[in-house]
Amino acid sequence: MPSPAAAPKLLTAYRKHWAARLGVAPFLPMSRAEMEQLGWDACDVILVTGDAYIDHPSFGMALVGRLLEAQGFRVGIISQPDWHSAAAFKTLGRPKLFFGITAGNMDSMVNRYTADRKIRSDDAYTPNAEANKRPDRTVIVYAQRAREAYPGSAIVIGSIEASLRRIAHYDYWSDKVRRSILPDSKADLLLFGNAERALVELAHRLAQDIPIETIRDLRGSAFMAPPGWLPGEGWQVADSATVDTPGAVHPHPDPYAMTAAASSAPVAGTVQAVRFHTKSERLAARQEERAHTVVRLPSFEQVSDDPVLYAHASRTFHLESNPGNARAMVQSHGIGPGRRDVWLNPPPLPLSTAEMDHVYGLPYARAPHPAYGSARIPAWEMIRTSVNIMRGCFGGCTFCSITEHEGRIIQSRSEASILHEIEEIRDKTPGFTGVISDVGGPTANMYRMACKTKEIESACRKLSCVFPDICENLGTDHAPLIQLYRKARALPGIKKVLVSSGLRYDLAVRSPEYVKELVSHHVGGYLKIAPEHIAAGPLSKMMKPGIGSYDRFKELFDKFSREAGKEQYLIPYFIAAHPGTTDEDMLELALWLKRGGFRLDQVQTFLPTPLAMATAMYHTEKNPLHRVTPASEPVSVVRSGRQRRLHKAFLRYHDAENWPLLREALRRMGRADLIGSSKKHLVPAFQPAGTGQRLASPGSAAVRPAHRTGAGKKPPSRSGRKAVR
Fold this sequence. Notes:
single chain; alpha/beta; Rossmann fold; ten-stranded mixed beta sheet; 24 helices; globular; disordered C terminus
């Protein structure tokens, strides 16, 4: 089984499969005709995806497909197949090795439904934004259809949808705890997180005719196992209750222990040779012990019936998320003869900078497949001139799925690789205007940030590196990013390089030089940041910094904007109805917005996504950020549709449609003094004719300063955050 101390095999260290001699495909084939043009009689791997196929590294199926192609495998793609029968899954024939099933870049339920469980009218990952081109719970449906099309073929599931459902999880759309996606999809293997290492190793082993049911040692993989199954001798099972107990999970080796130099018993009258254990020896012993320990989580049936056990399982799961010290986990599903275990190996080891460069430097066509003709694909239009410089996020925000999927360790590309991609965009993108729309990632300013030592990083079990304060062991140097910005905008033919990804402002204020560089050269009028709230209650449940960090960043932003002679505005984002938020908290935020002159165009309501810690709070009304017991801290939760609408209405206090609801709430809260027409009031007492008959509609878009909106200016879209909210 995988060991935390084992050095990973490099992605470029494998001997290529024989099909490498067939060369590189201009696009990975989506039809038999394309396969014939390439001289293929079959595909080694067939990727089935819920997105349109865009051959660009920002789209999972293209990145995975090109990576496997570089290993010498023939990879075909079935994009958005008709799932009502198995016919579409036979388009490319039977794969020699396996079907790779993915819902696409977004979770299918988040993609298809709003936070109020209403069906969306469009899909940014589909030609012409057409809706209903993928089913609910896409991974399960596609896996079952692929199995129906070719019984006996290996089925491997992945993507954010599979990652977030790898154990029993609360499902917001059905309002119940669902079991792991593995038994529902009947897949042979689930690869979670950024699965390049596991995927490449798996493909090469299957090409050697190793049966997939025997492959049980890949980091970042999950599978079904018989009850009580263990990988071999020397393994021990730890109950999850030992993880969530104050103090050490297991007794640490005594640093002052003395070990006999010889294995024989001491001879009377002789002096026994002794030595102290070094720190590295103790760490190695600890890692070896953890590498042969599996943590048993409460079963699916237990977490379904007991909110305390669900919250406890959520906390345990997140405590075992550091690749440097995470143990395998197992969770029982079923009762009686049908009971089976879901086994999760430790998370994948992060890619090195050289490996990141390899993945992003593959020969992508950087365009949608020609089969789509002139169809407009909104997601492609949004990222066609953007560059992803890193992955991962150590913020640990409880409502966000990045930690569960990509992990907290930042994986950065080299400066040379990023600059080369900018040149590729400049030289190969039709209609390029000289503007790079984004140089960023999950968080724009975490590039090359890491723990100060690998030893501390591999031993850490904190849920966030920046909450409640920035860890003293975290390197927060922005110098590499400043240098990258300067070199990028100095490239010939590049007029402007923008930063559109979300910014971690509590990190940015530690480097005024970075803020000056950003504000002076890389803001296109608006910069989006996400305070999410201003009240201590919800912020503590979000693991977000206090509003003071925002105020300090705003001071720097305004100062450097004035010095640059630019009229620029911050676009703060907020979440309504997050666990831990009261009506009074939302009122406080509404008054803050009014004082600042902000008017939100649309608001984002909390959407409980599987496995997120905030989702555990929503479902259980317990706080898994601390030890969970029946008597532990209760969390206030907004469930009713009316109260969720009220929280959104507070954020849109200026919309007359919301005034009746707000007036009613203010009177109930004893704050009728805020009803009136002066500046000190929140809403007026009168109601304009023809308004107040409907409530604010849900959405996730932008916010603008009411008194600072320039003619023709439009704030940037927030749609890029959908995948992780």
